[in-house]
Amino acid sequence: STHGAGHHAGHQVLVASNRGPVSYEVQEDGSLAARRGGGGLVSGLSAIGPDSDALWVCSALSDGDREAVRRGVGEDGVRMLDIPADVHADAYNGIANSVLWFVHHMLYQTPLEPVFDAEFRRQWASYETYNRAFAEALAQEAAEGAAVLVQDYHLCLVPGMLRELRPDLRIGHFSHTPWAPVDYFRMLPDDIAEQLLHGMLGADRLGFLTRRWADAFTACCTAVVGGPGGTEIGVHGLGADADFLRKRSHEADVAERMAALREEIGAGRRTVVRVDRTELSKNIVRGLLAYRQLLEGRPEWRERVVHVAFAYPSRQDLAVYRDYTAEVQRVAQEINSRFGTPGWTPVVLHVKDDFARSLAAYRLADVALVNPIRDGMNLVAKEVPVVSDDGCVLVLSREAGAHAELGDDAITVNPYDVIGTADALHAALCLPAAERAERSKRLAAAATALPPAQWFVDQLEALRG
Ligand code: G6P
Fold this sequence. Notes:
Layout: E1 11-16, E2 22-26, E3 32-36, H1 40-45, E4 55-59, H2 63-71, E5 78-81, H3 85-105, H4 118-141, E6 142-151, H5 158-165, E7 170-174, H6 182-185, H7 190-201, E8 205-208, H8 211-225, E9 232-235, H9 242-248, H10 252-265, E10 270-278, H11 284-297, E11 305-313, H12 319-339, E12 347-350, H13 355-364, E13 367-370, H14 380-387, E14 393-397, H15 403-406, E15 411-413, H16 418-430, H17 433-447, H18 452-464
Parallel strand pairs: 1-4, 1-6, 4-5, 6-7, 7-8, 8-9, 10-11, 10-13, 11-12, 13-14, 14-15
Antiparallel strand pairs: 2-3
6-O-phosphono-alpha-D-glucopyranose (G6P) binds at residues 19, 39-41, 152, 176-177, 314-315.
């Protein structure tokens, strides 16, 4: 047996995710610089806090990370796995972000995609290897009966693998993405679909961000493997961290960014703000087209509104993501050439990641545009109402998980409907100040109902039963 007395010294709580809380970069002088990770998952899990006894197992993602592992550089409570670069690339770029991300967000252009060929099978073997490395590390580090919380689509096979190595553990898995509808999920080869579901069903408990994604998962289980069996399924809608955001957004660097942004926007103008990782599900291009439609169809807004769009590069190893960034830049440029005047830039687009500037934009936002094609939750929708100085109107896609919690006080859009989105922007910009403030207050309350620390504790308690 692989478990026994030796494990009593291990950790009682373990978390596993592809991206960890920090990543490293080798500087010119050879030293390593640490940088915080991004995305909803890291925001949620950072609540674990540095003083708990929990261990966070994550993957080395870059050469800097692998160098850090080799030099023994790291943070307390974090174990970074030195996965070979080619295995990680196949698992992360190939399977996780090209196949599973596309399936759950329904991003394929189906006349030509997907094609599950020999290359896919080769990458799948790496995905298995990568998942096994996590399962083995967790099996090594966990105390007898410990709780293990596995995160997201990168690690779907871990629960099943870990169950075999350590039947004594309480194993949970949480999905930060949507879950695909049955017919879409079944594009995957049957044996792969089965393996994914069986891998996840190795957990005692599975968590999703909304009831909708949990139900979709259950439907896939029923269709592919006869049902979810004894695995419990729960919903935990990760909320925004109000205390952190309010404090952080009033620091000096944010005030500086606000002054610079005000310069770019120009005095007396309204702002439509969006902040995203540039990623295909975020629907940034249709958002720009809707804004163009607003200026086209309602010329009274020309010179009076600015679209502040921050589109931060993401997963740039993949050509589709790079091409999408280029398309965002092209359309923004086109709008500025078509409508811009010497004193007015209709779209202020920034692509260089800057958290302080994001918070500055949140504070200045009159309208927040969150129009994803499909999104597990979308934390920006929850963060802007918390941070905005004068309250903001939220224009929100009905396909974002956040819509289940914020829909009543947002202006809802169909993300494919550019005219409808333009109308929604107009309605948002016209909303009387008093109603806007009321709605924004209710949005902020709903957005912070389940702060990250509580989100984590709830799952842990449910898993321990
Ligand atoms: C989503 C996923 C996370 C991921 C994040 C950032 O929120 O659910 O697992 O960490 O995107 O993406 P990246 O590929 O940069 O980790």
